[in-house]
TrEMBL record:
Keyword Repeat: yes
Record has Repeat as a keyword: yes
Subcellular location: Cytoplasm
Gene3D superfamilies: MyTH4 domain, Pleckstrin-homology domain (PH domain)/Phosphotyrosine-binding domain (PTB), SH3 Domains
Coiled-coil stretches: none
Protein name listed in UniProt: Myosin XVA
Gene Ontology cellular component list: cytoplasm; cytoskeleton
Any one GO molecular function term: actin binding
Domain called MyTH4: residue spans: 314-468
PROSITE patterns: FERM_3, MYTH4, SH3
Source domain of life: Eukaryota
Matches recorded under SUPFAM superfamilies: Second domain of FERM (SSF47031), SH3-domain (SSF50044)
Amino acid sequence: MKALFAQNQLDKQRPLVTESVKRAVVNAARDSWEVYFSRLFPATGSVGTGVQLLAVSHTGIKLLQMIRGSREASGQLRVLRKYSFADILFVTIPSQNMLEFNLASEKVILFSARAHQVKTLVDDFILELKKDSDYVVAVRNFLPEDPSLLAFHKGDIIHLQPLEPPRMGYSAGCVVRKKVVYLEELQRRGPDFGWRFGTIHGRMGRFPSELVQPVAAPDFLQLPAEPSRRLAAAVAASVACTAAAWEVGRRREGSLTRSGSVDHGEDGLALPPCTMLEFAQKYFRDPRRKPQDGLRLKSKEGRESRTLEDMLCFTKTPLQESLIELSDSSLNKMATDMFLAVMRFMGDAPLKGQNELDVLCTLLQLCRDHEVMQDECYCQVVKQITNNTSTKQDSCQRGWRLLYIVAAYHGCSEVLQPHLLHFLQDVSQTPGLPFQGIAKACERNLQKTLCFGGRLELPSSMELRALLAGRTSKRQLFFLPGGLERHLKIKTCTVALDVVKEICAEMALTRPEAFEEYVIFLVTNQGQHVCPLSRCTYILDVASEMEQLDGGYMLWFRRVLWDRPLKFENELYVTMHYNQVLPDYLKGLFSSAPACRPSEQQLQQASKLASLQHRAKDHAYPPSVREVQEYVPAQLYHTMAGSAWLNLVSQHRQQTQALSPHQARAQFLGLLSASPMFGSSFFFVQSCSNLAVPAPSILAVNQNGLNFLSIETHELMVKFPLKEIQSTWTQRPTASSSYPYVEIVLGDVATQCTMQLQLEQPLAKCGLSAVSAAGPGAVSSGGCARGEPAQCQGEAAHTAPK
């Protein structure tokens, strides 16, 4: 740029005068200044990457970091990584604020609050590049015997060529559906026929258009001149073995063409949609091709005459290569080890010093470490339970139970998903077939895993023994406020949200908005440590982890949000809420202590609430002075003599005595709900970095914001509206730190300040997450933000104001 300015003698005193010079300056800036013509988005990457911004421009995307020097106050942008649009196959949003860039050889995961805007912008650029591109990417193998056809593998980049006759006076064509079609008569890249003509690695030929997808023109300075099987394998894995494949091939029609058979005429094989055989046709190895190592198998599967049907049926001999075509030799070796583990679990191969739990854990861990192998695992298990002819009597049954376990831990790609679900539904719904019940259970597990991510903790030996014996559920105790207990049936894939729904159903709550107001808490260390569970947390994962630690634990059910009005019809609903708010009321947290004598209105309300508490216990006799003292907050009770309080309470006895205990609790909740601090979560603040907040104090978190109350009088001293909260970070207590603390960023984007609070355990013992999850309309009694996972020790919990 400096050379261009010098060449044209440009400076502040000599403005640009010609359009050509202006155009040259703009082009130089666009080509040499990496982020100048980019749109910047706030983004973060994985831990340790340092990504702070994402830049999107006409050339591609760049991951940026702000570097602040000693001289520059504003800092400079440093490019950490950059990817051209030729490298990006497509972009997906697996979950809220999460971006997944599927590249030719890797995946890039970023997190941004503007994920949808980023995806839209990138998709627009890629779409424009594809429109003008003469390149396509192979989404399936095409290995014809006819040398005039172009052979390629999944992941290969093909350069389209114009369809020209081979010789003067001759025409190129073929017979399709008993009709001669001339290639040169077709529109170039036209969708009406399905044939393309292209070149790859110096070879030219025709190929079916259904086997490729448009792709941006590649940067050949970065591509090898010869075929790279590693690159092709990586692209093939993302196309055939991950959820990305559906995104690439969702517009694809027809089935796989093998060995040059590209005629879909009347004599072609017509398969029902979404069968496992259809999946095998598209993604399995060619059944007539020898294994990669050149060895010849002695079994039927190794002969030249074997078919795809053979590859989907039970075998008593180990595989020597994967079912799905994987070019990477290391993945192929994993596939053969995986199949041997499947055979050992089913009893068709000796354990050799291992037990069933060892074999199962090896299989599950292999799928967890190598996500690309999950589809292979499902295909192998389906193969072994299809037409099972094992000499072991329980081989097929154990295979189904293995499928049940795998479906609880790992999902499958969106490519395999419809085929696998069709297989399970076909077994469960076809009259007379065995294993209908477990097939339906496998389908439920798979659907749960695709929705919630799958189990994390490997099964214990006790759980595995129960599963092998056909027992797929256990009774788990859950505690509701006031010592209420619920023993619920927990299945392999029961998550916290399922428990919330079941208890809410008992309370006559059926709307999804109501489910968001309740949370399951894990309580350990004799009630000293309280952690809210994410709605996606598997209950048996929690139980398994706690049993390994050999520590006592409890699971609590609490209301954490108070957006919806109270209901008073259902008895369990009223009792649960009454028991939850009563301790806070008796501590005087819902009202401030009077400076001198309470007003008549305060006395009347406190005495009526005391009378309602007495009736809620189903007592027919008049309360004593000691009982009245237990019913009135201490700070209020000491303002008058006990006999005076007894007289006031007795005045309401005639009204309350006519009520049932349920009606008494309902009236108590109705009166108390008018208090300004009703629906709050209370915390004891040991210290605070903000000088405007006196410490120690009591923090009340509710829909109105963060309210700091005086310890002595419970009067409001300082208040921060929720709209001022930018983000929070919670550090839970550790062995070296007995007190948790919370960092809260307040203000707006321009002016921010950080406030650090050191907390004791919450007064209501309902966890620490209410502060870190605080957001408008998402306040919890020690719970997590609406629909968001609970934060674990030392993790950040960012909640942006709505």
